[in-house]
Amino acid sequence: KAGVTQTPRYLIKTRGQQVTLSCSPISGHRSVSWYQQTPGQGLQFLFEYFSETQRNKGNFPGRFSGRQFSNSRSEMNVSTLELGDSALYLCASSLGDTTTEAFFGQGTRLTVV
Amino acid sequence: GENVEQHPSTLSVQEGDSAVIKCTYSDSASNYFPWYKQELGKRPQLIIDIRSNVGEKKDQRIAVTLNKTAKHFSLHITETQPEDSAVYFCAASWTGTASKLTFGTGTRLQVTL
Known about the structure:
The complex is a heterodimer of chains A (113) and B (113).
Chain A: E1 5-7, E2 10-13, E3 19-24, E4 31-38, E5 42-50, E6 53-57, E7 64-68, E8 74-78, E9 87-94, E10 103-104, E11 108-112
Parallel strand pairs in A: 2-11
Antiparallel strand pairs in A: 1-3, 3-8, 4-5, 4-9, 5-6, 7-8, 9-10, 9-11
Chain B: E1 4-7, E2 10-14, E3 19-25, E4 32-38, E5 45-51, E6 56-59, E7 62-67, E8 72-77, E9 86-92, E10 102-103, E11 107-112
């Protein structure tokens, strides 16, 4: 079956702009989690959506937001981009219960200039 | 919130030797502990996980041990091979699911011939 798909793979944006990233989970998975990966901070949890509702949230500012659609696809939005937002953004999908693992997408590499 | 410390940050072993990576966590409520392998430019992939009701789990050359009292867990790789070279991340979750993971800072493992 198809894996987790993230689009686009690469993005270059200017400070102050906003950006939307997309994640299509594995078919049947209802949970999508988003992570930011940087060399300095490692992998940090942004938020999780389960059945169209935000179920968990990390410690990121309100500029980072997300949503999930009825087909479980999720989008993440970052407004008023800052240079420090440059990172690899990874999403992970799972069934969202206590029995299964999370599968990661290839990520979107965002560069803010 | 949860904090996960991981050591060492880099590890170099000769092919055929064993490698051990250690992690400690702060939240005694954590109950799910996965390990991910990330090769350069690729997505993190789950290699093994353990839940808090189990002390040890093994899968071929890979094993994970969990000490709930001391709040630490370790990854053991035996008979290392060059293809084991990658960055390894430990993670912890108190939700019991793979949906909200707190990651360690990663260990770069280099297996030399």
